[in-house]
Amino acid sequence: MRIREIKLTPVAFRDPPLLNASGVHEPWALRTVVEVLTDEGLTGLGETYGDRSHLERLRTAAPALVGLDVHAHHAQYARVAGAVGTDVFVDQHGLTGAGSNQKTVDAVFSPFEVACLDIRGKAAGLRVADLLGGPVRDAVPYSAYLFYKWAGHPDAEEDRFGAALDPEGIVAQARLLVGEYGFGSIKLKGGVLPPDQEIAAVHALRDAFPDLPLRIDPNAAWTPDTSIRVGRELAGVLEYLEDPTPEIDGMARVAPEVPMKLATNMCVVTHEHLPPAIAKGAVGVLLTDHHYWGGLLRSTQVAALCATFGLELSMHSNTHLGISLAAMTQLAAAVPNLTHACDTHTPWQQGQDVVVPGALRFVDGAVPLPAAPGLGVELDRAALAELHENYLRCGIERRDDTAYMRRTDPAFQPKRAYW
Ligand SMILES: [Mg+2]
């Protein structure tokens, strides 16, 4: 079965003003929906970033895949690598670590690979998780992903989540998300306020949710010394401490000095980072992400490497829609050593999506593996058209949290080893 055509549709959807070390989310989040059509009439879906430079690379790579068999994983990868050449993409917000050529190839390849697996599953009557070795769990647990946030975007009405700028606001947000989704673990995006205020928020969460695992992720906003101090102050409170400080060497300095494991989706983001990170003992938990680890199959290979070298696994999330959630769920269901609840931005989508509702739902904080073959989701063409119209009208072509923050706070600087 051969690839006949590939359609790329950039979309935009409303995003609340979520704060992070780089600034604040803009009113619109961008994604690209990938449709791979075959000569036998089957269509597969993928979803990836919507930044213009990434979209242009997708547009360059897509024609190189036409004519290849949907099963020809390695040939597809080679074609994408050839199309990307020596190009290096570095995200503007800086929240997913340094750019590299391999990471760029992996990120461009990923949505095409996911779409081909969707097709292969549909053709065989199997779920993608079956193609990845078979599910080891029927439902994939996700964490409540909390953010400091403004009540609403500047010059806009307050959103349904309201403000969260202190421990009380964070606890209220957690109660809302845990109440609506049943999440069984909690992650706080930090790096926004001085560390002592974020420590207080974590303690407030511990008091409010004594039984739920807690994590904080300041996106490398702290120095190694501050990371060690915070880690020691949160002894016995955190499940893991995510990217407290920049770079493998910084993490390696902190890791032996704190009582919990360090996790990362910033200092280990492609294969070339694994050997030094492992040799230096920099991290104990890898947050994998198929969007930049080269798709689902290659993510299972990374998972096997982690098992070999004693790294635990969790899963990273960027703002996403239902195709990505389906792919994340299929992958997580089929990775035995993914023992931590995955991150997801789903609650912040507020129901906006490009897939037909119903296939993906949260039960006690977990997404049951959809029963239908492939990814288990269908494209909602009317919704896709509407979100594409948003893209054409919104005037945003790349995510830039820092520039958006500077419209409110002209002196704002991204926080890297800042505190
Ligand atoms: Mg992170």
UniProtKB/TrEMBL annotation:
The protein, known as: glucarate dehydratase
Bilayer-crossing regions: none
Top-level taxon of the source organism: Bacteria
Enzyme class label: lyase
Pathway membership, UniProt: Carbohydrate acid metabolism; D-glucarate degradation; 2,5-dioxopentanoate from D-glucarate: step 1/2
Domain Mandelate racemase/muconate lactonizing enzyme C-terminal, chain residue ranges per copy: 167-261
Phylogenetic placement of the source organism: Bacteria, Bacillati, Actinomycetota, Actinomycetes, Kitasatosporales
Catalytic activity, as annotated: D-glucarate = 5-dehydro-4-deoxy-D-glucarate + H2O
Family annotation (InterPro entries): DgoD-like (IPR034593), Enolase-like_C_sf (IPR036849), Enolase-like_N (IPR029017), Enolase_C-like (IPR029065), GlucD-like (IPR034598), Mandelate_racemase_C (IPR013342)
